[in-house]
Design goal:
single chain; 304 residues; alpha+beta; paralog of FGE (formylglycine-generating enzyme); globular
């Protein structure tokens, strides 16, 4: 009797082990049901996210359908902000030189905002054109940069165009174009200023050599507004990553110089601090910044 029981137990154990072996070879269930003629195990899970869109390369161009201008892709990066090495013309508010990281890429106007682009804004919004300067009577020269724009008007234009006024750090990072010097080239080759422009007014955009990022007139021709409030000691304790300027203030900042200044003011670190209105005598202009994901279309040619 015991021999029969032992034999029965052995057979039962073999059956159970064989069943476990078969179960181990069955593939796990997929997230989709089987379809005749198709291999359901090769399908992706239903909750799998799509890969992100590729990041445009540095230097790529987009064309803004609203203002008709081209914008250049500026990559993230780290640079030394403030007084450039060997620059003896620096003021105290340009010091100390300090390391700044721009953590996100952005789009930057390839040129200064032109009269033609600002006319589009004026027609679309009802915002009046600023007072025309004597050297561009009636705003007849549409390829010249718009000037006599105050800070509020610059902000309104950039918002209408789908962008914003850049921070001071973004402005200097893009304006340097990878250069550590006070200028990214010989002044007469890259900028219109008092000496070569005669002090008589602006010139058509993009007539001088572009910087390393492909931006024109980052120095000279027309001043550019930035978003920051001005604090002469801000560089002494500003954040090292994406500084946005003081939280409040009464004075704003213009950068880059214009057709009027002497060379000492046409330097990439020079900070011209003014009240945000009443800039009509000094050629206040602008150049907008767009976030990395702006929906503007890719430009079909690289010219301004």
């Amino acid at each position: 009797m015991r021999s029969g029981q032992s034999q029965f137990g052995f057979l039962a154990l073999a059956f159970l082990l064989g069943s476990a072996s078969v179960r181990a070879q069955i593939p796990p269930e997929t997230t989709q049901s089987s379809v005749p003629g198709k291999d359901s195990t090769s399908k992706a899970p239903l909750n799998e996210s799509r890969p992100p869109a590729p990041t445009p390369a540095a230097g790529a161009l987009k064309e803004n359908p609203k203002d008709g201008l081209k914008y250049v892709r500026i990559p993230p990066g780290t640079f030394m902000m403030g007084c450039s090495p060997g620059d003896s013309k620096c003021s105290r508010d340009e010091k100390p030189t300090h390391q700044v990281t721009i953590s996100k890429g952005f789009w930057r106007g390839q040129t200064l905002v032109t009269v033609a682009a600002y006319k589009r804004f004026s027609a679309a919004t009802g915002q009046p054109m600023p007072p025309a300067p004597s050297f561009n009577s009636g705003w007849g020269h549409e390829s010249m940069p718009i000037v006599n724009v105050n800070w509020d008007e610059a902000k309104a234009y950039c918002q209408w165009a789908g962008g914003r006024v850049p921070t001071e750090a973004e402005w200097e990072y893009a304006a340097r174009g990878g250069s550590s010097g006070a200028r990214y080239g010989e002044l007469d080759e890259i900028a219109w200023y008092y000496k070569n422009g005669g002090g008589n007014g602006t010139h058509d955009v993009a007539q001088k050599r572009a910087n390393g990022f492909g931006l024109y007139d980052t120095l000279g021709n027309a001043w550019e507004w930035v978003s920051d409030w001005y604090d002469p000691s801000y560089y002494q304790n500003s954040p090292s990553s994406d500084p946005a300027g003081p939280a409040s203030g009464t004075i704003r900042i213009l950068r880059g110089g214009s057709w009027a200044p002497y060379p000492k003011d046409v330097r990439v670190s020079f900070r011209y601090h003014v009240y945000p209105v009443g800039m009509y005598a000094y050629g206040g202009g602008l150049r907008c910044t767009g976030e990395a994901n702006v929906p503007w279309k890719i430009a079909t040619n690289s010219g301004p």
